[in-house]
Amino acid sequence: MGRRVLLAVGGGAAAIKAPLVVRRLREAGFAVRTLATRRALAFTTELSLATVSGQPVATDAAWFAPSGRVLHLELADWADLVLVAPATAADLARAAAGLSEDLLSATIAAGARRVLWAPAMNPEMWADPAVAANVGRLKARGHAFAGPAYGAMAAVGEAPGLGRMLEPEELAARVRYHLSQKDYAGRTVLVTAGPTREYLDPVRFLSNPSSGKMGYAVAEAARDRGARVILVHGPTHLPDPFGVETVPVESAEEMHRAVLERFPKVDLVVMAAAVADWRPAEKHREKEPKRGQEKVLTLVRTPDILAELGKRKRDQVLVGFAMETERGLDRAFEKLKKKNLDLICLNHPTDPETAFGADENRLVIIEPSGRTEAWGKASKRALAERLLTRALGFMQKPV
Ligand code: C5P
After folding, report:
1. What is the CATH number of domain 4-179?
2. pLDDT digits 0-9 by tens, 342-354
3. Rounded to two decimals, what is the model's pTM?
4. Which residues are identified as catalytic?
5. Which residues line ligand 1 (CB under 6 A)?
6. Cβ distance 83 to 108 under 8 Å?
């Protein structure tokens, strides 16, 4: 996977976010260099870009790289991907016409391997047929686009519209997508994530603190690796990932229905959702008034989704999660057998460093043979990647 990203900053108001784009790209593990057009430096500064990237900024003021090579040739060679963010209408027009009158257009004309444009401009400009024609020409040459998004405009008094640059985090996610190996191409992956809510009445429910982060990380990693991804999720605070079919549900029953309906066409299921095991026997139609000092709740079991999939599975690969506070390994292994899984991942819910909602986790992976492997603390994304690599090894069915 390519790891070198050149962030080319065009001269729009969104250039003030360019240092943050560098940060997010570096956090995602990319080596980043920056290029800024003359207009971009009216919005952001060379010093801030150099500080966050740890590299000198390439500008129109220089012709030669420190190596002595012509700068635009050196940059085009160095970068696995050029992200133009923000890209102005003029940047698009120059590249579409094959002009090379500034360092940005010259770098693209010099044969940059991959180019990802993040346009940002007034909605009227984005809607201009000349801009659309330039976008079409660049797409025809294999260039990719991220955004623009609908939202507020920088200039005072402008109405919101389609023309906002995608947020820095979203841009980093798009870059990762474009630079990932597509070893899941042709596969369909269904992931469940988040908690479920089991309602007592219209406003009260039983639930748990699952954030959904582990499941979303699996879904995003599978998408980046070329899979078609369906994410069935309970209520979370996470934004819908791009390029993923999301199916929001609330109760275990709803999740059960949503998953079973889609299961026949799926190659891999990763059940990362913290599905409630019990629900109130009855759900009151109206909010229950408080009466007396005590109340007894009768609970009934929810359907065990994974166990049901285990019975129905043909060549699908099934991965479950287990969260135990004691006898973790034994219990997780029993679950793997009982539910007919290919892999189970044991979480440690009481570990303060990796508890509910954390960005990092540690897992113990258990296989049907009883073989276990401890995966030390890492980001949920890194663990998701490892899990997908392991699951790919279990797939019998050719694409
Ligand atoms: O049996 P237990 O709930 O501990 O098993 C955990 C695994 O089973 C998780 O992968 C979870 O998503 C799944 N599960 C399920 N349906 C339930 C309860 C748990 O699919 N009703």
Report:
1. 3.40.50.1950
2. 999 998 766 766 6
3. 0.92
4. 208
5. 252, 271, 273, 275, 277, 302-306, 320-322, 335
6. no
